[in-house]
């Protein structure tokens, strides 16, 4: 006769962040039973999902009640099997180029042309970027928010405005030009360089310079 195990006992044998496959393997149950366990645990408040139920990645509140706050990077990696990069307004705020902060953390995840949709995840805005874009940007990124790697501010701004100029359907938030503080001439030129690296057209670069004044010009106009 199999020894009875409570939900808490079962969860104690699972990692702080787990998915349905972990439940199957570690508890030696079928996929159907694993999904049913997760459904019951979630309803009982013993676990918290990374997103909607079909996402299938969960924080184990029995082994680590602080998991939803402290293990966000691990949960994202568990789902996508790839690292995320902080982009957009989140990156601009992190680097001090704007005082406005997005409600959700904005991340780029590598994808191919066939991978355009992303799930809805609690506390995140996820954007797909092509592998070539990702390779170019990741090489110029550094440590950032919640353990995620954060793109440099010039690339965060260049990427965001190009998505806007090209009418891409993105959920990423970009502050108004007046709310972005490019520190100086060198940083301004670095944004121009980032636009070129991201293959902006001459018209797109010209539009940027029309909308975003050089810092020294803004300073002169204030007198």
Helix-strand blueprint:
Elements: H1 7-12, E1 17-19, H2 20-27, H3 31-43, E2 47-49, E3 57-60, H4 67-70, H5 72-80, E4 85-86, H6 88-94, E5 105-111, E6 124-130, H7 131-138, E7 142-143, E8 149-150, H8 153-165, H9 185-197, H10 202-211, H11 215-221
Helix pairs in contact: 2-3, 6-8, 8-9
Could you characterize the architecture of this molecule?
The protein folds into two domains: 8-61, Arc Repressor Mutant, subunit A (Orthogonal Bundle); 81-221, Beta Polymerase, domain 2. The protein contains eleven helices and eight strands. The chain is elongated. The protein is α/β, with parallel strands linked by helices. A five-stranded mixed sheet has the order 6-5-4-8-7. A three-stranded antiparallel sheet has the order 1-3-2, with helices on both faces. Helix 2 (20-27) crosses helix 3 (31-43), helix 6 (88-94) runs antiparallel to helix 8 (153-165) and helix 8 packs across helix 9.
Count the domains: 2
Overall pLDDT level: 87
Strand order in space, largest sheet? 6-5-4-8-7
| Biggest sheet statistics | 5 strands, mixed
Beta-strand portion reads 5-15%
Total beta strands? 8
CATH architecture heading of the largest domain: 2-Layer Sandwich
Element order: H for helix, E for strand: HEHHEEHHEHEEHEEHHHH
Q: Which class of the largest domain in CATH terms?
A: Alpha Beta
Shape: elongated
Helical amount? 40-55%
> How many DSSP helices?
11
End-to-end Cα distance, whole Å, is 85 Å
Which fold name is given in CATH as the topology of the largest domain? Beta Polymerase, domain 2
Q: For the CA atoms, what is the radius of gyration?
A: 21 Å
């Amino acid at each position: 006769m199999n020894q009875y195990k409570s939900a808490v006992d079962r969860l104690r044998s699972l990692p702080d962040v787990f998915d349905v496959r972990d439940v199957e393997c570690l508890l030696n149950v079928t996929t159907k039973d694993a999904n049913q366990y997760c459904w019951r645990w979630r309803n009982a408040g013993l676990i918290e999902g990374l997103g909607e139920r079909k996402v299938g990645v969960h924080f184990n509140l029995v082994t680590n009640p602080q998991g939803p706050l402290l293990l966000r990077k691990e949960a994202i990696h568990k789902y996508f099997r790839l690292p995320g990069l902080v982009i957009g307004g989140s990156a601009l705020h992190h680097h001090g180029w704007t005082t406005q902060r997005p409600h959700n953390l904005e991340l780029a995840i590598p994808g191919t042309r066939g991978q355009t949709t992303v799930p809805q995840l609690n506390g995140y805005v996820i954007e797909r970027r092509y592998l070539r874009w990702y390779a170019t940007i990741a090489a110029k990124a550094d440590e950032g928010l919640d353990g995620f790697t954060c793109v440099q501010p010039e690339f965060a701004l260049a990427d965001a405005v190009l998505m806007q100029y090209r009418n891409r359907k993105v959920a990423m938030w970009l502050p108004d030009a007046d709310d972005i503080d490019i520190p100086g001439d060198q940083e301004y030129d670095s944004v121009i360089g980032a636009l070129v690296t991201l293959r902006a057209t001459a018209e797109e670069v010209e539009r940027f310079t029309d909308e975003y004044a050089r810092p020294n010009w803004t300073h002169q106009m204030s007198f």
